[in-house]
Amino acid sequence: MNEGFETLAIHAGQEADPHTGAVVPPIYAVSTYKQDGVGGLRSGYEYSRSANPTRTALEECLAAVEGGARGLAFASGLAAEDTLLRTVCAPGDHVLIPDDAYGGTFRLFAKVLERWGVSYDPVPLGDVDAVRAAVRPETKVIWVETPTNPLLGIADIAALASVAHDAGALLVVDNTFASPYLQQPVALGADVVVHSTTKYVGGHSDVVGGALVAASAELGERLAYHQNAMGAVAGPFDAWLTLRGLKTLAVRMDRHCDNAERVVELLASHPKVTQVLYPGLPEHPGHEVAAKQMRRFGGMVSFRVAGGEEAAVEVCNRAKLFTLGESLGGVESLIEHPGRMTHASAAGSPLEVPADLVRLSVGIETVGDLLADLSQALG
Ligand SMILES: Cc1ncc(COP(=O)(O)O)c(C=O)c1O
């Protein structure tokens, strides 16, 4: 049966509980499971690091909504990334990363994986020829973020998948900003999709989590082995909250997009704003590609403020309804200064972000209230 996105998000992996009929998977707060004789597992569960029924429900649902063969849930997005990279890379391998990757992803490469012997090069993912030219014989992964955090750059997933596959490398797509509702990388050729489920998938700023979705069962099996061997799994309560968020992803995303479009309109005509970065704008260099591979353009908006760093910081400090804080993708609107907050770890690197940049995670509050707050914050 070819079910729609919303149906999968609400039902995939979530049969009514066989014992009680509970329509929502219970929180299996349990570490171990009684065996019927040595090795006689009742329903495949033996120890909750290896598998837990609440986590299984989330993992099956994630695989379904991303159109992949296997989903795996982790304690955080970075735990998912680390597990993936230590599964598919070995010391001596090389990875291409976006030249404006999320600061924490960059730090993982620069401070952790490089010491382990995996080298990396930042590349402008919007330029497919530049990516092809940067591939080396030892390149194992092309790491894609699209839209990127925080500059909202767009990469052509299908084109980069063929660059990766021609080179015998894997294409990994961090789909955190778009969410599976707006963009489905597996259908475009990605081998693995990464999520910080902390963001749109969870959607309520109440849980930290991560996910991997493998396109093939074979790679999914290798990742599952490492998930258990490395142990950075999502706990049952976190898995339950994340699954609860995932059920309403589609309706939330549509409202995030509606509100973001109105915010972009306001910013684009504001005298204190020198540039608006949003892939929905026709003048955005990635607009055509985004229109091809995304359902809509998302809830993240960045902009540059006339007057430089101090002026940008002032806008962040003056906002009231837009809460000053890191993270994104929750129902409440957030504002932040990437240079001093989320992307401070990229300072002095090729991934340093402009000092006059402000990033918004546009929430689903009444849009008039959001516009009024931004107008007063801009002064
Ligand atoms: C695009 C992106 N990928 C990955 C991560 C890391 O996820 P987590 O914070 O859940 O470890 C983040 C966090 O902000 C992110 O924005």
Features:
single chain; 379 residues; alpha/beta; Aspartate Aminotransferase, domain 2; Aspartate Aminotransferase, domain 1; 2 domains; seven-stranded mixed beta sheet; five-stranded mixed beta sheet; 13 helices; 37% helix; binds pyridoxal-5'-phosphate; Cystathionine gamma-synthase; transferase; PyrdxlP-dep_Trfase_small; EC 2.5.1.48
Structure in words:
The protein is α/β, with parallel strands linked by helices and 379 residues long. The chain has helices at residues 5-11, 53-66, 77-88, 103-113, 128-134, 157-166, 179-182, 217-230, 236-247, 249-268, 287-293, 308-318, 367-378, and strands at residues 70-74, 94-98, 119-123, 139-145, 170-174, 192-196, 210-214, 273-277, 300-305, 323-324, 334-336, 357-361. It folds into 2 domains: 5-247, Aspartate Aminotransferase, domain 2 (3-Layer(aba) Sandwich), CATH 3.40.640.10; 250-378, Aspartate Aminotransferase, domain 1, CATH 3.90.1150. The chain has a 7-stranded mixed sheet with strand order 1-7-6-5-4-2-3, sandwiched between helices. Strands 8-9-12-11-10 form a 5-stranded mixed sheet. Helix 2 (53-66) runs parallel beside helix 9 (236-247). The longest helix has 20 residues, at 249-268. The model has no long low-confidence stretch (mean pLDDT 96). It binds pyridoxal-5'-phosphate. It comes from Microtetraspora glauca. This is Cystathionine gamma-synthase.
